[in-house]
Amino acid sequence: MPPATAAPSWSDLIAALLRREDLTTDQARWAMGQVMGGEASPVQLAGFLVALRAKGETVDELRGLADVMLEHAHRIDVPGPSVDIVGTGGDRLHSVNISTMASVVVAATGLRVVKHGNRAASSSSGSADVLEALGVDLTLDPGQVAAVAERAGITFCFANAFHPSMRHAAVARRELGVGTAFNALGPLTNPGQPTYAAVGAADARLAPLLAGVFAGRGRPAAVFRGDDGLDELTLATSSTVWWVASGEVTELSVAPGDVGLASAPVEALRGGDAAFNADVARRVLAGETGPVRDAVVLNAGMALAVAEGAPGAPTRDSLVAALARGVARAQEAVDAGAAAALLERWVATTRELAAG
């Protein structure tokens, strides 16, 4: 009879990482299970995260961490096709909340949006901050959050409420003060696990890994990064896109001019606090033109392109064509007043449910 395999330990895993050995998915799952169960000390977790970051994370490692985080989350079921539009943050460019505005625009086209996000960490205003300033009630329980999606066509899963076990990692993450694998987990751990994902990633090293996790899960997705470092499709230059379809990842490139949008410097997208960004959102969704609107419809267009699916083998031409159709639909939703109306409906629905 073969000897029993020894249970993993923090010292074994950290030593392996220091030898620059990749962990298996099961080893990563064990580590995250310890964290989610409150059994890992801040020192053990900090050592693990730093060693993992120094070695460089792999798709299998991120998949293991994300899967266990999802197992400990409050999950919701939203019927029908849906999409998440989310950025990892961390670009330190302090732009307005582009993915949040793009989410409203996409929902206004008729594709249901299940957005996942949190308060600001490295930016001036996170998605939760700006939505709160816009009047969306963030105090709803998971059942109410799912109901909002069906009534309003869009909903928001507030990470703090849906991932309570992440409180066990708070001390280590706060005291480290540097980006770790945990910064990549948000886009992978949406409690509603929507059909499609459009994910902006500031870290060029992590972007293809996120795409690899989506591919392994069989989920259509686009992971993208502005070549100027923006965790969105940028107007300033080209953007790299990791297109995920049929379990495969294809790296492509797009630029705003490909879909008839003017270039603009990243400074034109600069935001402020939640109140400032909420005012920008209201004006853009009401039809104000300019670089912010262009950035919003560009990123909304990518989410719609993912849902449409570029026909045949993905090529730059097929991606640009699908993106152009998505941008046109996004512009129509804004110009017809559907985006502004949807925001009003979203706010009203959350308040009605919160009031009982």
Structural write-up:
Anthranilate 2 binds at residue 173. Anthranilate 1 binds at residues 87, 118. The chain is α/β, with parallel strands linked by helices and 356 residues long. It folds into two domains: 10-72, Transferase, Pyrimidine Nucleoside Phosphorylase, Chain C (Transferase, Pyrimidine Nucleoside Phosphorylase, Chain A, domain 3); 82-162 and 182-342, Nucleoside phosphorylase/phosphoribosyltransferase catalytic domain (Pyrimidine Nucleoside Phosphorylase, Chain A, domain 2, 3-Layer(aba) Sandwich). The protein is 47% helix and 12% strand. The chain has a seven-stranded mixed beta sheet with strand order 3-2-1-4-5-6-7. It starts with 9 loop residues before the first helix and ends with a helix. The model has no long low-confidence stretch (mean pLDDT 93).
Any chance you could write out the topology, listing elements then pairs?
Layout: H1 10-18, H2 25-36, H3 42-55, H4 59-71, E1 82-87, H5 98-108, E2 112-117, H6 127-134, H7 142-152, E3 154-158, H8 159-162, H9 170-176, E4 196-200, H10 207-217, E5 221-226, E6 239-245, E7 248-254, H11 274-285, H12 291-308, H13 316-335, H14 338-355
Parallel strand pairs: 1-2, 1-4, 2-3, 4-5
Antiparallel strand pairs: 5-6, 6-7
Helix pairs in contact: 1-3, 2-4, 3-9, 4-10, 5-12, 5-13, 5-14, 6-11, 7-14, 12-13
